[in-house]
Design goal:
about 300 residues; 11 strands; two-stranded antiparallel sheet; seven-stranded parallel sheet; 12 helices; single chain; alpha/beta
Length: about 300
């Protein structure tokens, strides 16, 4: 399936995005050990298939993620909707904190542009608001980057509906990125605001941080991560078996169905460091779930938590 044939979404201030993209976080995880050639293979295959939203962050691998993406897109930059995030500062070990002051916004963007090897970022996200910096200051600084041609569109991550309204009053917001899966549905409280404002939704971890697509038994970990939804793997396996596909593809197809439920553009960005897993994710976008299958999935995903 090629997404160019499946259609695209116009969101925000004229940004056109595919129905599915690629999250690049896993390429910098120690277990992945993804080198430039492996990362390029996955990213280039995503572009070939039309999954052209390529999403990274300045915190992935402490900048290495952006470098990998930049190298992979060196000769195909115009084919990608290039997205990255800022706002989380990594300290020694596992320590981190959040910044959103105007000078930091500018410095972060300049550093990302250099690592990505590009003159402009298509969609620049604030990773999360800073509690001690007014959101209006941060978004105002992002708007300045748009005016200067360094950023084409701006987005937010991990925000409430009220925060989205405040930011949108300063400068149009094109997309909100947040976790959304059968295990994590808190974002649904603010999705109506996105629909009202014409803001696209970009779900990360649409496969439940890999737990819903795991090849082995992760039921104990699933119970800790998404309490109240321990029955999900069994139902996913059941439906997947009936369809002849993998459970993770059914979980991803459910996220795609949210676009029709909420009447809002939804572009999931499942992450992977492997071409075969990417191709499975791409195929999932073409799976149309029946009313019965949706009811069975909602029956085990509407519990407490997540």
């Amino acid at each position: 399936m090629n997404f160019a044939q499946a259609g695209r979404y116009p969101i925000g201030t004229g940004l056109v995005v595919p129905v599915q993209g690629l999250g690049c976080m896993r390429m910098t995880e120690p277990a992945a050990a993804t080198g430039p050639s492996e990362a390029a293979a996955v990213i280039n295959r995503a572009l070939d298939l039309g999954a052209t939203m390529i999403d990274t962050s300045d915190m992935y691998g402490r900048g290495r993620g952006e470098e990998l993406v930049g190298r992979a897109l060196r000769h195909r930059r115009d084919e990608a909707v290039l997205c990255t995030r800022f706002g989380v500062v990594l300290g020694p070990g596992d320590s981190w904190w959040v910044r959103g002051d105007a000078p930091f916004v500018r410095a972060s963007c300049e550093a990302s542009l250099k690592r990505l090897g590009t003159d402009v970022i298509d969609l620049y996200y604030l990773a999360r608001p800073h509690v001690d910096v007014e959101l209006e200051e941060t978004v105002g600084a992002m708007a300045d980057l748009v005016a200067e041609g360094k950023v084409r569109h701006i987005g937010l991550s991990e925000v409430s509906g009220e925060e989205l309204r405040r930011a949108h009053a300063v400068h149009p917001i094109s997309a909100v990125q947040s976790e959304w899966s059968l295990g994590a549905r808190r974002i649904e409280a603010m999705v109506p605001v996105c629909a009202e404002l014409g803001v696209g939704v970009v779900p990360f971890s649409p496969n439940g941080r890999g737990l819903l697509s795991a090849r082995d038994d992760r039921s104990a970990q699933l119970a800790r991560t998404f309490p109240g939804r321990e029955g999900l793997p069994a139902v996913l396996r059941e439906i997947a078996g009936e369809r002849g596909v993998r459970p993770g593809q059914i979980a991803l197809a459910w996220v795609h169905h949210r676009a029709r439920v909420w009447r809002v553009p939804v572009t999931p960005i499942p992450g992977t460091s492997r071409v075969d897993h990417l191709e499975e994710n791409v195929a999932a976008a073409g799976i149309e779930l029946t009313d019965d299958e949706l009811a069975r999935l909602d029956g085990v995903s509407a519990g407490t938590g997540g």
